Every structure is written in structure tokens, then in C-alpha cells.
Amino acid sequence: CMETEPSFETGDLCSDTNPAPKHKFCGDPGPGNDTCGFNSFFNTPYNNFMSYADDDCTDSFTPNQVARMHCYLDLVYQSWQPSRKPAPIALAPQIVSHTTDSVTLEWFPPIDGHFFERELGSACDLCLEGRILVQYAFNASSPMPCGPSGHWSPREAEGHPDVEQPCKSSVRTWSPNSAVNPHTVPPACPEPQGCYLELEFRYPLVPESLTIW
């Protein structure tokens, strides 16, 4: 028999959703004998994403459902959580002195200090939240014979990604074979030197991560 009181034992294993039979309409179902007796269901969670109702009805989860999902995600996808500390909390200005016709305010540094203590004109002035500096290559070159600019040239490796579709051939990428005759012998990238691209960054910093696309 179907239960008539919410429990942690059936359904979505939450106690904050009232029991309900399989019902696809936007509203409480009519009386039925699903509970081993003729009974009615009231305050059923027909607007819950876990219900059987149509998508037009569903718009929410219950607090217990949210808690269960957080518990699962925090355990299974723990490695996805950012390890960086959040940005510091800024403090409101404080009144340090006042007279009948003036007031003096002072802005104190944030609680941990590292985010707002930046010098203008330095790399730290360009940092994002979490004290992160994002750089793209700004000067690319290659010792291989190729045009200095244009399609397939080393200059295509500068700046942010701009290809039409990732992992597909594009004229907006660098290719060591762009200026090489297909009948050239020896090959365009002779060993042991091979083909390589030299990239420079505007700020010489030790990187935390490097992304190549």
C-alpha cells in the first residue's frame, strides 16, 4: 500500500514531500484507492521537478532534495571545487573624525589584504578576483620558413582563441606547413630540430597553469 505520510524510505527519500500517486496533471489528484483504501491526496508536490507532472508545472526542488543533491555532488565531484580562496571582503568606510561642518572618512583594507593592495602600472593591477592574472601570447614567431603574418602564420597564435570551431582545421591557427611546397624534400620540419613555435608573454611570471589549444 502507498504510504500516507512522508518518510525517508520511499520515493525521493525526503520527508518534506507529501506522498502522491503517479499523476501528470498540474494539481492534486482525485480520490483513489492507492493507499489500500479510498483516500484523497492533498498538497502533493506536483510543481516539484521530481514529480510526474508535465514540465509546464514543475519549477522547484524542496530543501531536503537540495540538501541531498549537494551532499552527493560535494562528495563525488570534490575535485571540481576551486581550491582558491574567495576574494577578500571589503570593509565599509569608517568615520575617523568630524566637526560641525566636515567629516573625515577612511577606507580600511579588506580583511585579508591581498586583493586591494595593488600597485597601478604593475601586473597585479590587472589581476582578476582571486588574484589571478590571465595572459595570452602577444609575440609569436617561428624559425621555420613562413610568412610573418596572414593565415597560418605564427601571428595567428597570438591573443585569445578565435577559431570557428575547436579541434578543426582553421586558417586562424599556426601551421608550419603553410609556406612549404608539398613536393619539398627534405620535409618542412627536419629532425632533430623539428617544428616549434616561440611564444612570449607580456609579464614574465611563473604560471600556475598553461592552456594550449
TrEMBL record:
Q: Which domain of life is it from?
A: Eukaryota
Q: Where is the Pappalysin-1 SD scarf domain?
A: 126-213
Check the record and name the InterPro entries matching this protein.
MetalloPept_cat_dom_sf, PAPPA/PAPPA2, PAPPA_SD_C
Q: Name one GO molecular function term.
A: metallopeptidase activity
Listed Gene3D superfamilies: Collagenase (Catalytic Domain)
Q: Quick one: signal sequence residues?
A: none
Database matches in PANTHER family: LAMGL DOMAIN-CONTAINING PROTEIN, PAPPALYSIN-1
Q: What is this protein called?
A: Pregnancy-associated plasma protein-A
As recorded in Swiss-Prot or TrEMBL, the protein's gene is named PAPP-A
